[in-house]
Amino acid sequence: MRVTIAAVGRLRAGPEASLVDDYLTRFDRTGRALGLGPAKIIEVETKRGGGVAAEADLLRAALPKGALVLALDERGRSYTSPQFAERLQAWADAGTRDLALVIGGADGLSPEFRDAADHLLSFGSMVWPHMLVRVMLTEQLYRAASILAGSPYHRE
């Protein structure tokens, strides 16, 4: 199952970008044998404004056709890391070819985009900077692959 992370905004060089690259590399390496990956990030950005509606249009255009869409939103469901790993495996086992994980910009996702998503995922009721959410999401992808592979990376 290929994984696309579609995010509003550009991640500049720095510690966050280094962490995202590291976790994506680890995920690809660990997930390959499990049928997970590769993973890639697509960044979108509005130059003319237009708010969350314009961002939603760019995000929709960036997603692979027929992808299962998992939007990150504080109103979404929170999973433990093992539960998230189980969900990823279940989607892959069900024949899902593409999983799209979507991160909105500073104002979140448009209500229409959020309502059209297949699933909503929350990292808690706190609001997180979208650049940190990328780090947290890529780490959880790697952690999920590690859990499924039986690696000691995840400890309860």
Fold and architecture overview:
The structure is a single chain. The chain is α/β, with parallel strands linked by helices and 156 residues long. It has one domain: 3-Layer(aba) Sandwich (Alpha/beta knot). The protein has five helices and five strands; from the N terminus they run E-H-E-H-E-H-E-H-E-H. A five-stranded parallel beta sheet has the order 2-1-4-3-5. Helix 1 runs parallel beside helix 5 and helix 3 packs across helix 5. 33% of the residues are buried.
Defining key terms:
alpha/beta; 5-stranded parallel β-sheet; 156 residues; Alpha/beta knot
Produce the secondary structure layout.
Layout: E1 2-8, H1 15-31, E2 39-44, H2 51-62, E3 68-77, H3 81-93, E4 98-103, H4 111-116, E5 119-121, H5 130-149
Parallel strand pairs: 1-2, 1-4, 3-4, 3-5
